[in-house]
Design a protein that fits this description.
12% strand; nine-stranded mixed beta sheet; 455 residues
């Protein structure tokens, strides 16, 4: 076996800057010389920039350049040497290339291993990730010792860098439609299961959304103040966690734990909310509470009433809860109270915020429901009905959302309205299907919205 110094000489061996996969690098670069088509075969899973040795990385680049003029066959070391010498003469190649004897030994040593090139490429990738991980640790140490350390900025930057390292392992390969069309056929005759959808708790909404919310979706529920958007959000949480056992996180930036639990108990036990708050629930109500509490206690419903919430904090919490409890649904009350990333203006801040939330939903495969406030647009119209354009900073929110539900109650404007007690869920955007208006019943005294059929 040729040693490292035999191949490069004592002054040309790669420097030790962390975990190394030098033997795998030799095998992979020699393999692409013997079979240049491997460059295309490895393209979806391997980045040649991860090759730590400068000389070997340039062997890869030389083979990649030469193969453009070839239709088949191997690329021998003489051709690689000519290409590198030409680059070196023009200054394009900044490092001394391997000489002919070194290239010859490299080729002869590793040629039989090209069938396992994918395995060795993975070893190179993992070593490169480990080196980046160590470098990030050094950067964290420098940031933490700096007098200019800013927890908000530096922790967010570190989290983004760590996510980038992790995402570098994610690979995707284009697929022929014939390989995936069978899944569409199967879905066309198989109703979605609870593992694939999250029921909303409303029959017509579930029908509109083909069974409920889907993984990776960003759902926006928007309304003017005092319309009941927090009640809708808690309704979604109860339907998922209490009725269907789906791990759910409700992030409240507005209500505290006591208010949240009062609302949940009122809705589940059908005990007037104001009686709970006043401490005057009668014996019959207490019995209903006693029957509801065990059902509530068994639900994987997590409440957090923190007054501050940023994207890095939320990301860390979601990652932890996915690993520990299998989190699938997150509801945030509400968007405008979140800590937005710093930007040149408020619209740009909200754009970064909603984009970050959408990417988070997609990355973790969860459903993210964010409650949001509308501007005063509805109040300037005769019918008071909201539009998607009434969303504050609507451009970014509307663009990133998969579903936008606008909440409207006529009796919020006219107490003697003939539609008193009714509420419209106006689905103003539905990326995966039709838009519609779903009419529900608002039972404010029980802190809930319900299907009209139940009223």
């Amino acid at each position: 076996m040729t040693t490292e110094t035999d191949l490069w000489g004592p002054d040309e061996a790669p420097s030790a800057t962390g975990p190394s996969a030098i033997e795998s690098e030799r095998i992979v670069t020699a393999s692409v010389m013997a079979r240049p088509a491997l460059i295309d075969e490895l393209a979806g899973e391997f980045d040649p920039a991860d090759i730590q040795s400068d000389q070997l990385r340039w062997v890869w680049h030389a083979v990649d350049a030469i193969r453009e003029t070839l239709t088949k066959g191997e690329i021998r070391w003489q051709a690689v040497d000519r290409q590198q010498q030409a680059w070196r003469a023009t200054g394009y190649m900044p490092v001394p290339p391997l000489d002919l004897p070194q290239l010859s030994r490299l080729y002869d040593e590793a040629q039989p291993a090209y069938a396992a090139a994918s395995y060795y490429a993975q070893q190179i990738t993992e070593a490169a990730i480990a080196r980046r991980f160590l470098a990030l640790g050094a950067d964290i140490s420098i940031r933490g010792r700096s007098a200019a350390f800013d927890p908000t900025v530096d922790i967010a930057a570190t989290q983004d860098a760590l996510d980038d390292i992790a995402r570098n392992r994610d690979t995707s390969t284009p697929k022929l439609v014939r390989d995936i069309i069978g899944g569409a056929l199967e879905r066309s005759v198989t109703p979605p299961s609870l593992e694939e959808v999250i029921p909303t708790g409303f029959i017509d909404l579930d029908a509109l959304f083909s069974g409920g919310f889907k993984p990776g979706q960003l759902v926006v529920v928007a309304a003017r103040p005092a319309m009941g958007k927090s009640t809708v959000g808690l309704g979604f949480a109860r339907a998922a966690a209490i009725r269907n056992g789906i791990p759910t996180l409700f992030e409240s930036l507005e209500m505290g734990d006591a208010e949240l639990s009062d609302n949940i108990l009122s809705a589940e036990a059908r005990v007037p909310l104001h009686h709970i708050k006043q401490g005057v629930v009668d014996d019959a109500g207490v019995q209903r509470e006693a029957r509801a509490v065990p059902r509530i206690n068994e639900a994987p419903l997590y409440l957090n009433d923190s007054s501050e919430l940023s994207l890095p904090t939320l990301r860390g919490r979601i990652r932890h809860m996915i690993r520990t409890v299998g989190l699938r649904l997150v509801i945030i009350d509400y968007l405008q109270l979140m800590d937005a990333p710093k930007a040149e203006n408020r619209q740009a801040e909200v754009s970064k915020l909603t984009r970050g939330l959408k990417l988070m939903a997609k990355e973790f495969g969860i459903t993210l429901v964010i409650l949001a406030q509308l501007n005063r647009g509805p109040e300037s119209r005769t019918d008071k009905k909201p539009l998607v354009s009434d969303l504050r900073e609507s451009g970014a929110i509307e663009q990133d959302a998969d579903i936008v539900i606008l909440l409207h109650r006529e009796d919020a404007y006219e107490s003697d309205s003939p539609r008193a007690g009714e509420a419209d869920f106006i689905v103003g955007k539905h990326r995966a299907g039709p838009k519609a208006t779903i009419t529900t019943a608002f039972q404010g005294h029980y802190a809930q919205f319900i299907d009209m059929a139940q009223s």
